[in-house]
């Protein structure tokens, strides 16, 4: 509406400008006013188009409401979901899409929003044809033009409800009994089939009815089964599936025996190493057990065959299922030695020794063996044998043979899965550490480990979503595979980190060349959907010869080298060397001495000029902290700022920096030097308390300075915190007249939402993006996008890291008029900066 009024006003002015009654001076002023109004209209139109594009690109129905629940706006997904045009909904109460809401439905919503939280509820919405569908609505408040509105996002739950319904229907209709127990064996639930098998009436307690003191549990020979040998207990203890165990359950009160075939499957929670519950499936085989002919069938279903060997007579008896398992239905073996020829040579001695021991000493054995059927088909079998008499010198052994080939194949598959990253198909952390240990144990070469971290990957997740992030990781894995070749092992180590392990026998060239190829693999931009973006890699290289013969040691060395690559500007590789180890020790030493540095007067400031890119005239300066240690010498900020933030010392140091910078500004102003403002970097830790505005006010007051002379540079991390105390700090600083700008814009978590709602006056374009301009298309596109966005939002832009004339000219072409960098000056001590200010414009 505001835009329409502006357009109407513009039309009236255009008519008035043609009036012959206007004097020449008045006509010129009117023409200037018309031009200004036209610019405002164009900017407003662009702002509206950006809003509508973002709003309508979201896939879920989104409604903008006022406090009364009246619909103010609706996106395209909402119109599609409800089958109604925007004009049919806007201005109506939300009851038009949810007629079941009570009259005071907004009260609980507003109560939660007033506490600074979001409100979530499941309701049933209605389409234009009267059909209903369940939704989960997330509501949050936002301020627009001083008025609070509510954004409500509706997520369709129809598919989830249908899946839950089908699951319940399956559990209720399946004819197998199902019991679920926790890690302590406590019964959590059971399906109707289980209730029927155990004779439990509706309403009775399942746990009470299945109490072990009410039942006698026996095995197929009628022997009592101890609690620790029950299939669910064994599955929880071993972490393996316990298949097709035949159990007889005798109920003491009802004096009834039921035979069940039980399979227990352990369940693992996400990231769990031990089962947290077990699911048991029961089949009632009572009738099969009673009829021997049918019991043979039960053996077949369970893939369990029986055998008996009379050592004295040399006779061997095998059930039909045993012969089928062995593949000898048409040619039964005549004795045990002939049968054992099916067992692989490496497993055969164990079976022969177990049989001999039973004949001498009695007892039993339980072995898993590998072999081949006569047709060559691989076979895994579980062989159980028991002496007929418990005493020694027995002549008869009976037992079972079970086909466990499928279980073994599944175990192999699970073993592979346990070592594999499900997203990329590469090795995971455990798989890679095992592979690394194996290669180092050979001691036949100089094993090389590459630790790879993707630079600025978090930006992909934050801006494009986790789906795009996953696609990027998969594409990165493929590039790495091509770069390192087939002889190397590649793993996704977690998040956006990858590992490559190789040795000279698997490399055609040196580890350094492989590291360079890894960097080169990320030279081309990535593409997800319609989006192109640049992702680079920081690579750390460590070799076993670099004092890294143990896996964890080699990994630590490669990790240190990777962080050194990041410190050097990313998109590069570094090889571990003793100097890195010394730097790690230096960091520990630095942290221990950091707290004394301020009291010992070891900090000082240097000032880097911020200039007009048109003529080099100084517009301001950035105050940069330096530490001159009495024994270690000059220590750059990269080597101590991180520790200061981690320990909290940055709060006290930051207060000193603000005071020192104000003192220097005062000295320059008294000398009549032309400087408009000084920028000071402020850590996010300084925003977590309430002291920052008082510190700034005290420093300004002590030097009798206006707030406009001071500019605070904040990181994007401060923006995403958005805690109430941080917002209050923003407001207090703006009340002092202090400017707030975002430093290194684009490297972290920037979002239009923060820039639009928070009192930010400007941004500093990161030097990371300037390095590639004007040659690198990706960096050029980013700089153009940032410049256009800043102009649209009315933000000032300062280009950091301007080092060449080509970079300066490119910035000027984008409309960025201020910058700093080595093209103009490094950071200067106060006296040198004073001389710099006295020079004529360059």
Automatic annotation (TrEMBL):
Q: Which SUPFAM superfamilies match?
A: EAL domain-like, Nucleotide cyclase, PYP-like sensor domain (PAS domain)
Q: Where is the GGDEF domain?
A: 445-578
Organism from which the protein derives: Arenimonas oryziterrae DSM 21050 = YC6267
Q: Can you tell me where the transmembrane regions are?
A: none
Report the InterPro entries cross-referenced here.
Biofilm_reg_signaling (IPR052155), EAL_dom (IPR001633), EAL_sf (IPR035919), GGDEF_dom (IPR000160), Nucleotide_cyclase (IPR029787), PAC (IPR001610), PAS (IPR000014), PAS-assoc_C (IPR000700)
**Name of the featured protein:** Diguanylate cyclase
Where does the record place a coiled coil? none
Q: Where is the EAL domain?
A: 587-841
Question: Matching Pfam families, A to Z?
Answer: EAL (PF00563), GGDEF (PF00990), PAS_8 (PF13188), PAS_9 (PF13426)
Domain PAS, residue spans? 47-116, 163-213
Every copy of the PAC domain together lies at 119-169, 365-416
């Amino acid at each position: 509406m505001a835009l329409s009024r502006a357009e109407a006003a513009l039309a009236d002015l255009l008519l008035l400008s043609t009036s012959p009654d206007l004097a020449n001076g008045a006509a010129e002023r009117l023409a200037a006013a018309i031009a200004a109004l036209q610019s405002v209209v164009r900017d407003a139109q662009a702002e509206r188009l950006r809003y509508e594009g973002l709003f309508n690109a979201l896939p879920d129905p989104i409604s903008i409401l006022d406090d009364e629940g009246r619909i103010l706006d609706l996106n395209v997904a909402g119109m599609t979901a409800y089958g109604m045009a925007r004009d049919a909904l806007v201005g109506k109460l939300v009851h038009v899409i949810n007629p079941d809401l009570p009259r005071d439905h907004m009260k609980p919503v507003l109560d939660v929003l007033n506490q600074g939280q979001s409100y979530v509820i499941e309701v049933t919405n209605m389409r234009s044809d009267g059909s209903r569908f369940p939704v989960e609505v997330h509501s949050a408040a936002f301020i627009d033009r001083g008025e609070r509105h509510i954004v409500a996002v509706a997520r369709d739950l129809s598919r989830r409800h249908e899946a839950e319904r089908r699951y319940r229907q399956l559990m209720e209709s399946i004819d197998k009994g199902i019991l679920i127990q926790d890690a302590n064996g406590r019964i959590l639930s059971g399906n109707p089939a289980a209730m029927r098998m155990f004779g439990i009436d509706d309403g009775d307690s399942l746990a009470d009815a299945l109490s072990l003191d009410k039942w006698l549990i026996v095995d197929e020979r009628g022997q009592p089964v101890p609690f620790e040998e029950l299939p669910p207990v064994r599955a929880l203890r071993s972490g393996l599936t316990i298949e097709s165990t035949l159990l007889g359950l005798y109920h003491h009160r009802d004096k009834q025996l039921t035979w069940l075939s039980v399979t227990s499957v352990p369940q693992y929670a996400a990231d769990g190493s031990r089962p947290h519950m077990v699911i048991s499936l029961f089949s009632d085989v009572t009738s099969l057990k009673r009829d021997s002919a049918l019991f043979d069938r039960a053996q077949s279903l369970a893939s369990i065959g029986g055998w008996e060997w009379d050592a004295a007579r040399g006779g061997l008896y095998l059930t039909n299922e045993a012969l089928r398992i062995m593949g000898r239905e048409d040619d039964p073996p005549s004795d045990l030695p002939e049968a054992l020829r099916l067992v692989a040579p490496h497993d055969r001695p164990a079976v022969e020794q177990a049989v001999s021991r039973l004949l001498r000493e009695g007892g039993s054995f339980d072995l898993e063996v590998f072999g081949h059927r006569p047709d060559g088909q691989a076979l895994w079998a579980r062989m159980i044998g028991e002496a007929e008499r418990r005493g020694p010198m027995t002549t008869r052994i009976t037992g079972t043979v079970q086909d466990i080939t499928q279980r073994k194949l599944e175990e192999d598959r699970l073993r592979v899965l346990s070592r594999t990253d499900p997203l990329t198909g590469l090795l995971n952390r455990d798989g890679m550490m095992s592979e690394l240990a194996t290669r180092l144990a050979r001691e036949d070469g100089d094993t090389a480990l590459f630790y790879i971290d993707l630079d600025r990957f978090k930006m992909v997740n934050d801006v494009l979503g986790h789906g795009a992030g996953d696609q990027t990781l998969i594409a990165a894995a493929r590039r790495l595979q091509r770069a390192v070749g087939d002889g190397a092992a590649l793993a996704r180590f977690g998040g956006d980190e990858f590992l490559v392990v190789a040795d000279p026998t698997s490399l055609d060239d040196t580890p350094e060349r492989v590291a360079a190829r890894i960097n080169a693999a990320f030279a081309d931009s990535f593409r997800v959907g319609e989006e192109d973006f640049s992702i680079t890699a920081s690579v750390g290289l460590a070799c076993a010869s670099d004092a890294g013969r143990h896996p964890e040691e080699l990994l630590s060395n490669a990790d240190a080298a990777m962080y050194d690559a990041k410190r050097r500007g990313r998109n590069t590789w570094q090889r571990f060397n003793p100097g890195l180890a010394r730097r790690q020790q230096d960091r520990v030493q630095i942290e221990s001495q950091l707290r004394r540095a301020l009291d010992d007067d070891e900090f000082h400031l240097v000032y880097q000029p911020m200039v007009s890119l048109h003529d080099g005239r100084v517009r301001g300066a950035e105050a940069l902290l330096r530490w001159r240690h009495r024994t270690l010498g000059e220590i750059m900020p990269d080597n101590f700022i991180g520790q200061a933030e981690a320990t909290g010392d940055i709060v006290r140091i930051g207060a000193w920096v603000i005071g020192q910078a104000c003192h220097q500004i005062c000295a320059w102003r008294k000398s009549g030097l032309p400087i408009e403002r000084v920028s000071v970097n402020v850590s996010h830790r300084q925003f977590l308390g309430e002291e920052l505005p008082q510190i700034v006010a005290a420093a300004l007051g002590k030097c009798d300075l206006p707030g406009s002379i001071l500019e605070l540079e904040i990181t994007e991390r401060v923006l995403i915190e958005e805690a109430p105390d941080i917002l209050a700090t923003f407001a207090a600083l703006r009340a002092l007249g202090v400017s707030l700008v975002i430093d290194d814009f684009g490297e972290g978590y920037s979002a239009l939402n923060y820039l639009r709602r928070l009192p930010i006056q400007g941004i500093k374009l990161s030097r990371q993006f300037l390095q590639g301009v004007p040659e690198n298309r990706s960096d050029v596109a980013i700089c153009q996008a940032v410049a256009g966005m800043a102009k649209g939002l009315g933000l000032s832009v300062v280009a950091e890291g301007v080092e060449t004339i080509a970079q300066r000219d490119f910035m000027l072409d984008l409309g960025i008029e201020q910058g700093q960098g080595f093209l103009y000056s490094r950071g200067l001590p106060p006296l040198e900066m004073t001389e710099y200010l006295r020079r004529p414009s360059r």
